[in-house]
Amino acid sequence: MNDLPFDLNAVRMLVQVAEARSFTTAAGQLGLSQSGLSRAISRLEAGLGVKLLQRNTRNVGLTPDGRQFVEQVTPLLCGLDDARRQLGDRPCTPSGTLKITAPSMFGRKVLVPLAGQLMAQYPQLQIEAVLSDRLVDLFEEGFDGALRTGPIADQRMIARRLRPLRWVTVASPAYLAEHGAPDRVQALHDHCCLAVRNLRSGRLVDWQFRAADGQLQEFTPPARMVFDSGDPLVEAALAGIGIVQVMDFAVADALADGRLQRVLQAAEGRSRELSLIYPPSRQCSPKLQVLADALLAGEW
């Protein structure tokens, strides 16, 4: 049998460079010099007899051959890691630091409680969570994964679909007792609505309702109070100030114990995709897998 024309360490290096799109970033993550990393990739290309990377002054990208190679070898690398752990009689117990980022409200309401459960279940697991609506760079900032809403454009990432986010329109029982519940969407013009201003466009963030024909229609709320983010909406609704439209997870506990009530429920229908994304090199990470399993269970 002929020897393989490459070593596995060089293949792992290639995957890291492909994900980071930067020799500098990948070298820092691997603890190598940039020149040493470049030489290893060059030897790998020479052994395979194909060009794997395209280099320019701004970034590094895979050639078509390189993309095909990385897509095929990444699952094999994960399988080798699993086999090595099993041969060493080392269970795939989550340990070490899981660095994850999530949108602010989802992080506070969903990720933090889940993180507490996981750390109680796995004493060797630590979690570093960055809760921000800023779109972080997973490679540059060393994240294991991220929770993202909407379509995922970055083809470097693996995206695992979670339960979609759904919007509900709610108010406190005290507010509804004083002002009554709107019986149709246009009746919101007679109510105190609380909204968010998009700081980029300067416009209020529209609400959405499903019309009789099944189509979603946008509605600009006649806002008497406006915030620069969605986080304060729940607190304001609980205080009885007015009606808000928020994602269901943000008010699940308040709806369950009666502190808030849904209105215009028949017109609900707004939703948005939610995904856990991560680089292919993290695919077999036990600490990321337990988080994915908890999120996929959908108990939030």
Summarize the structure.
The chain is of the alpha+beta class.
Low-confidence stretches: none
DSSP E strands, number: 15
Provide the CATH architecture of the largest domain. Answer: 3-Layer(aba) Sandwich
Strand content: 15-25%
Based on helices, strands and strand pairing, what is the structural class?
Answer: alpha+beta
Report strand order across the widest sheet: 4-3-5-15-6
Keywords:
300 residues; 22% strand; 15 strands; D-Maltodextrin-Binding Protein, domain 2; five-stranded mixed sheet; Arc Repressor Mutant, subunit A; transcription; alpha+beta; four-stranded antiparallel sheet
Structural notes for this entry:
The protein is α+β, with helices and mostly antiparallel strands. The protein has 3 domains: 8-87, Winged helix-like DNA-binding domain superfamily/Winged helix DNA-binding domain (Arc Repressor Mutant, subunit A, Orthogonal Bundle); 96-161 and 273-296, Periplasmic binding protein-like II (D-Maltodextrin-Binding Protein, domain 2, 3-Layer(aba) Sandwich); 165-272, D-Maltodextrin-Binding Protein, domain 2. Helices cover 38% and strands 22% of the residues. The chain contains 9 helices and 15 strands. The protein has helices spanning 8-20, 23-30, 34-48, 64-87, 104-121, 173-179, 231-238, 248-256, 286-296; strands at 53-55, 60-62, 96-102, 125-131, 145-149, 158-161, 165-171, 193-196, 207-210, 216-219, 223-227, 244-247, 261-262, 271-272, 274-278. A hairpin with a 5-residue loop joins strand 9 and strand 10. Helix 1 (8-20) packs across helix 3 and helix 1 (8-20) packs across helix 4 (64-87). It is elongated. The relative contact order is 0.15.
